Structures are given as structure tokens and as C-alpha cells.
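Q: For a teaching session next week I want to show students how multiple molecules come together into a single three-dimensional assembly. I've collected the sequence lines for a complex. Could you give me the predicted C-alpha cells for the whole thing so I can convert them for display?
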Amino acid sequence: DAKTTQPPSMDCAEGRAANLPCNHSTISGNEYVYWYRQIHSQGPQYIIHGLKNNETNEMASLIITEDRKSSTLILPHATLRDTAVYYCIVRIGSSNTGKLIFGQGTTLQVKP
Amino acid sequence: GAGVSQSPRYKVAKRGQDVALRCDPISGHVSLFWYQQALGQGPEFLTYFQNEAQLDKSGLPSDRFFAERPEGSVSTLKIQRTQQEDSAVYLCASSLSGAAGDLAKNIQYFGAGTRLSVL
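A: Of course. Below is the structure for the complete assembly, covering every listed component.
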């Protein structure tokens, strides 16, 4: 599975959009981009995933560049409860195990 | 229950003791995963079950770590002769389908974890 690079930390004002970048320059054609987040003392929570088209759900939007070498997770109206570590993960759609390989993630601090 | 349940939430063990950590996956979920998360780090894969079959145990750090899922539902992670470096949060996740299935059914749902402290 391809490696991802994320900034270690970011701040965002409450009510504003939070844009979390991820670089995955070695991604291959059959690899998907997944985003999970982990709030303190909880297990990781699935947010969204995509292959090459932009995706949106009730939690967030995922924008993937045309060359698929980077993506951005957008939380449109961040709240204090969105403070968490956000993990960008790249993995093959159908693999032998489906295991997730987490990096260090981005610690997002939403401030009032 | 509605989610993945892990017990105990906290476990303190003396070095050399054996521990057993339990995971109750979401009912009907075929796949079950164990991860280990050291303080300040992202979770790291330990092992994977599809039903009762352990298909991947490549992440288990030593032969002191053993996992089972005898009836394809509840799973237990056992650590023998615990060492201080085993102190971590142990996370369990389950997904509806097998690894090669529909991606929408392949999303992993995590429990809150068991925090193990070895003194």
C-alpha cells in the first residue's frame, strides 16, 4: 500500500471549514484513499473514502486531484467536537486482508 | 449491541503475567482485526480473521501474542508473560464482508480499545 504524508497539526476556528491535506504521490490505480479520525480515548472512526471522483457524505467531502497524488478532506463547518487526529490511508480495494496502515495523522484542534 | 465492544477497558498487569483481551464484533460481521496503538502513534495491524480462520498474523510482534476466534464471532487476544513494551491500547475492528468484498461492506468499525499497562 502506498505511503501517505500529512502535516502533524492544524488549527481551525469553530464554524469555519477545516481543510486537511494528504499527499500520496506513489498511489497506484487500484488504491483507494480512506479517511478515519480518532477522538481522544476512542477508537478510530470511518469518515469517507474515494478512488478518483470527489465524494461527499454527511460528515465531510473528499477532493482528490486529477493525478490522484494528493487529496483534501473538508469538514465544512468545524465544531469543537471535530477536534481529533485525522488519518489519511491508502489501500488496495480488494486485498488479501484489508488491513489498514495508519501513519501519524494530523491533529486538528478546533478553537472557539 | 450496536457497535464493537471490548473488555476490559483498562487492564493493569505485573510484568510476567498473562492477559486476555476480549472483542465482541458487530453481529454478522465476517472480518475481525486487532491493532496495537502505542502512546502518540497511529494504530498498527496485528492480525486478521475471516470468520474463524486467522488469515494474517504477520503483525503479531512475538510468539507471546496469540489470537483466536473459535466460533467466528467473539475474539480473544492473549499476551503471555507480559513485558513493559506491551503497554499500549489494543483496538479491535470488524467489517461486514471479507477483505475482497464490496468496499462499502468493507469499512472497519472500531471498538474503544483496551488500555494495557504493564508494571
